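Person: I keep going back and forth on a fold encoding question. Show me how you would write down a chain together with its backbone fold. Please set it down just below, with no commentary around it:
Helper:
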Amino acid sequence: MGAGTSPVDPAPAGRAADEPREPDERDGTTGSASPDPATAATAATDADTATSTSTDGATAATDTDTAADGAATGGRPRRSRRFPRFTRDTARPEGGGRAASGDAPAPARQWPLLTVLGAAGLGLLIVVLDPFDQAFRIGTILIGGALIAGAVLRWVVPSVGMLAVRSRFTDLVTYGLMGTLIVLLALVAQPAPWLDVPILEDAVRFTIR
C-alpha cells in the first residue's frame, strides 16, 4: 500500500477519521464558541436586576436622609439668613447686665437707671413748681447733671442694667453731650446769666435778628 496509512491502523484518539471539522477549528485549535442567546438574555436580565437594586438602595438612602432632615427640621426649626419681619429680641448691649446679683430686689438691680431718672425727675419737678428764685436754672442744671452722671456711671460701672442702651462709647457720647449742652444752656439763660459767653450771645442775637 506504500508509505501511507494502513487501513488497519486505528484512527486518532478523540476524533473519528472521517469526522468533519467545525468551522471555528483551524490547525487543531478550537476558537471561542459563539455566545448562547439564552445565556446572554439571562446575563442582561441579571444586570438590569442589579441596576434596579442599586437604584432602589440609593432611593431608600435618599428617603432616609430626607426623613432625617425632616425630623431635624421638625424638632429644631432651620434658621434663615433673612431679617425677620418683626423683631422679637435684641442683643444685650455691652455692660447691660444686672448691676447687682439676681437675688437682690429689682430696684437694687437697676440702681444706675433709677439714680439718673430720680435726679432728672427732681430737676423737672423743681422747674415746674418754681418754689424759689432761680428755680428754673437750678432745675435745668440738675437735669443736665443727671445725664452727665449717667455718662460717668456708664464708663465706671461694669454692668449698669437698663441704663445701657447701645455700645459703651455711644452711650458715653450721648449722655455726656446732652448733659453738657443742657447745663451750658442753663448757665447762660437770661436774665442775669451765671456764665457770660460772648460767642453764644452773638449767636443768639444773630439768630433772633
